[in-house]
Amino acid sequence: MTYKQEIINFYNARTNYDNDLTFNRAIALFDYATPSSGQWVLDVATGTGNVAIKAAQKVVPNGFVIGIDIATELLKIVRSLIKHQSL
């Protein structure tokens, strides 16, 4: 197994890592950046997409959000949340 695959497997196994502490820290950090409508946001290591979704709520429809992550299982969660919230 390659090192890259080991990293992917590690993060794919953590699909339920979000909790109030990590969520609140991520959102507080994001709010500190004061995003506004029309801006573009890149969320690197988006995980379950908490920050990307919060960003979309502030910058869309005139802006754009891209969330990337190496963990495909986490990206499945993000896609489901985006679909559920019609973003």
Question: Could you characterize what this model shows?
Answer:
By secondary structure, this protein is mainly α. The chain has a single domain (3-84), classed as Rossmann fold. The chain is 53% helix and 11% strand. It is globular.
Task: Name a few traits of the molecule.
single chain, 87 residues, mainly alpha, two-stranded parallel sheet, 4 helices, 2 strands, 53% helix
CATH superfamily: Vaccinia Virus protein VP39
User: Helix proportion of residues, in percent?
Assistant: 40-55%
Mean pLDDT over all positions: 85
β-strand percent reads: 5-15%
Under the CATH scheme, which architecture would be assigned?
A: 3-Layer(aba) Sandwich
Distance between the termini: 36 Å
CATH topology: Rossmann fold
Number of domains: 1
User: What are the low-pLDDT stretches, counting only 5+ consecutive residues below 50?
Assistant: none
Count of discrete alpha- or pi-helical segments spanning 4 or more residues: 4
Instruction: Quickly give the structural class.
Output: mainly alpha
Order of SSEs: HHEHEH
Strand order of the largest sheet: 1-2
Using the alpha-carbon principal axes, give the shape. globular
Rg result: 14 Å
Main sheet properties: 2 strands, parallel
How many E-type strands? Answer: 2
CATH class equals Alpha Beta
